[in-house]
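User: Please run a holo structure prediction.
Assistant: Happy to. Please share the sequence and the ligand.
User: Here you go; the ligand is nicotinamide-adenine-dinucleotide.
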Amino acid sequence: MITSVQNVLITETCGLPHLETKPEMPFTRNILCIGAGYVGGPTMAMIAFKCSQYKVTVVDINPERIAQWNSDDLPIYEPGLDQVVRAARGRNLFFSTEIEKGIRDSDVIFVSVNTPTKTFGAGAGMAADLQYWDKTAREIRKHSRSSKIIVEKSTLPVKTAQAMEQILTCGDNGVCFDVLSNPEFLAEGTAVQDLENPDRVLIGSSQTPQGLMARDVLVEIYANWIPRNKIITSNVWSSELSKLVANAFLAQRISSVNAISALCEKADADIQEVTRAVGMDSRVGAKFLNASVGFGGSCFKKDILNLVYICRHYDLKEVADYWEGVVKINDYQKERFILNMLQVMFNTLARKKICLFGFAFKADTGDTRESPAIRIAKRLMEEKADLVITDPKALNNAKDDLKGVDGNVSYIEDPYEAAAGSCAIALMTEWSLYKGLDYEKIFQTMAKPAFVFDGRNILDHPALFETGFNVFPIGKPPLTHF
Ligand code: NAD
Ligand code: UGA
């Protein structure tokens, strides 16, 4: 455990403090982040931006990603991120592939590697795949020459910090490690504002004197720009579990609304009127109640499945089944959307041109991981529809996602060009761009009868109907000319 006062390092070696002087130390702290992805990159950019007294280095095994972080064309699209990176890069923010050097030189290491759902062996399709995490722990142990604070930034199953500590402390080099849990709650598309002004920062630590000292180091880092009352602390297991539960609760809200949207369509109710009435109860709150074609993103599904797996591990069958229902409803919602398209377009989509407006899993990101659009596109292609996909930021990822899938698909950035000649537009992503299009002009270029399936309920449905479209929102009565 290390704290630094000007050029003097106060080092706790296995509980024994000793002082050592460093020759020239322009920065008061050396922070490393392993994993330069959607979390590691923006989070470290914000720390460097807010704390010019720290040197922040982000390393990754993927040299292409690092090269992009060092270029004008960042590897991820996030509003406002360019400015933050540009302000700090080269000053106190560095992107590098030199993992070994990074580990050696640092006193605080954030680990933000990917933790996808396991695709093989025990727990396949449910448990978190911890191979990247395990490998990182071993690298840290191998290259560390001084004691360090290790910060779990990745989302991990409960008790991972313990496993990490066991891997780290099995060496015989006398180096000590304190493992903290500091889950990230940023959402893509709003990452910069979430990092700058988070609802809370959560830090889990062991309750030993050394664990609490490590915790305080991390509290100090965040306190450079975040009010103290928003920095909350807990034990490590609560912190790890809180992250999974936070995502499960958010996803559960969407599945609850989407489940009711199915009922609204049968009962001639309007889901937006229902959620407005329900959300005005201050105990419920109005946010995160938008019915949709389904939630996507790299984390909701994987984190819930991980939670389910942990519950099954502890023999909590009813609890596991309850949370699994959230994922099942999400799959049901996507399938319902497709079957509805098929049915209202006269039970055949074969050789019909269908245009997907948006492919990203949400607006303001180019990320398509677990995007509902992937499943919808594949199902439409199974029905032999000819697809045209348009999206302002996600077309390259869409091409990767649909590589090798059997069927006709083209990618066109301009939405007017993309929609021309189509029988239907299926809106997948709530890009605000799609609200402002000239739908009269689009209608003129489409095959008739022309359909709009609004998978996000963002368009002006009565106006589209007036234009001549047959309009199918989510959880509202359709507006048709038949
Ligand atoms: P990502 O896939 O974008 O980035 C992970 C990076 O880690 C990749 O660039 C990969 O090359 C690198 N990596 C893997 N193994 C490595 C190793 N041994 N050494 C160095 N680099 C290595 O993932 P992400 O979206 O940034 O997510 C990271 C973690 O954060 C996950 O656990 C995720 O659940 C969690 N999380 C993600 C978000 C989000 O919005 N994406 C939000 C909160 C939490
Ligand atoms: C989510 C959480 O919001 C973050 O707090 C968390 O840190 C992150 O997961 C993570 O752990 O990765 P993110 O997936 O980036 O963030 O984006 P969200 O805004 O949560 O949206 C997730 C999905 O739900 C999107 O497909 C979105 O379109 C959908 N959604 C959201 C709805 O369908 N309806 C809503 O009302 C809100």
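The mean pLDDT is 93.
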